[in-house]
Write a structure and sequence with these properties.
Number of domains: 2
Shape: elongated
Strand order of the largest sheet: 8-16-15-9
Helix content: 25-40%
Number of helices: 7
Strand content: 25-35%
Order of helices and strands: HEEHEEEHEEHEHEEHEEHEEEE
Number of strands: 16
Radius of gyration: 27 Å
Largest sheet: 4 strands, antiparallel
Structural class: alpha+beta
Length: 312
């Protein structure tokens, strides 16, 4: 009997009209126009949604709607820049509105429903984990090598304000991203199979090596690190961490109970990386060998970050 009732209901539903369409807007601007028959199962006497076509539509709308959230960060003056929530398609609400249009027929406009996407790091969290410095390291470079200096600054900027939660594994490559000319990286000297060459992004290994020594000083667990095929001048022997997008990466794990904050800054010819956390963190620092202070550019001195205290 239920089956007979469903057949009767379907027969009451009006057949497809090739004139029907749905205009989908986002923030009041059209982003998609859907013909009703293009998302229907073909050759049926009653309208039914083709779920494969509908899912393809959803994927397209996801791409056009999604806006990535932006974490809170600390700017160059030491001020916290607030986070920004992202946006994503609200699938459930969209389905309800879409099916209403589909079975009612006619031409309609649908403002796409969205949900906020919260960032991982907000300003309140940053304010609580920038209190205590638990690790620090600096290395020096020749600021007159413009391309290499530029690459170092770009990588440090991408690394700065990174937050690693308890139990989380940090990846240098995933955090800094692919080093390409489109992102502003320039050609500079690199080491390939023990020989000096030139490539886009040359110099970023000095940032990863400085980071390695800073987090090692903070006592975290190093889970992946590779050395160059020949020694480098900016760190003592065996204290480097080479990285390459299609090759080695540098990983460490936050084994503490509190989040960690990474500050990475470049001042003239000095790369400085510091590790911070809450004032309640219990940590076990390690002694690490320092790069020679004699290599500092003339007239330069190491400057501490805003609101810091010296590590033990």
């Amino acid at each position: 009997m239920n089956f007979t009732w469903m057949i009767g209901l379907l027969m009451l539903i009006q057949p497809l009209s090739t004139q029907d369409h749905l205009s989908i807007t986002h923030d009041g601007k059209p982003i998609e126009r859907i013909e009703r028959d293009k998302v229907a199962v073909p050759l049926l006497p009653v309208p039914m949604v083709d779920h494969d076509r509908y899912n393809l539509l959803l994927k397209e709308l996801d791409k056009k709607t999604y806006r990535e959230p932006i974490n809170a960060r600390i700017d160059k003056s030491g001020q916290i820049v607030p986070e920004q929530a992202g946006v994503k398609l609200y699938h459930k609400d969209f389905a309800e509105k879409f099916y209403t249009y589909f079975f009612n027929g006619g031409t309609s406009t649908l403002e796409i429903p969205t949900l906020p996407v919260p960032p991982r790091v907000d300003k309140e969290l940053l304010a609580t984990i920038r209190i205590k410095q638990i690790g620090h390291y600096h290395t020096v470079f020749n600021p007159h090598n413009k391309n290499r200096s530029h690459n170092i600054s770009l990588a440090a900027e991408s690394l700065d304000s990174s937050v690693i939660f308890p139990g989380e594994v940090f990846s240098f490559n995933q955090t800094v991203g692919k080093r390409t000319a489109a992102k502003g990286y320039m050609r500079a000297p690199i080491i390939v199979k023990g020989e000096y060459s030139e490539g886009v992004g040359g110099g970023i290994c000095q940032v990863s090596s400085t980071l390695f020594n800073a987090v090692d000083n903070a006592g975290v667990t190093i889970t992946q690190r590779y050395s160059h095929s020949r020694s480098v001048s900016y760190v003592p022997p065996g204290r480097d961490a080479t990285v390459s997008w299609y090759g080695p990466d540098f990983h460490f794990k936050n084994t503490y109970s509190d989040p960690l904050l990474i500050r990475a800054q470049v001042h003239g010819g000095v790369v400085s990386v510091a590790v911070y956390s809450t004032d309640a963190i219990e940590y076990k620092p390690r002694r690490v060998p320092w790069a020679s202070i004699d290599q500092l550019p003339k007239g330069k001195k190491i400057e501490s970050h805003v609101d810091t205290e010296p590590a033990d």
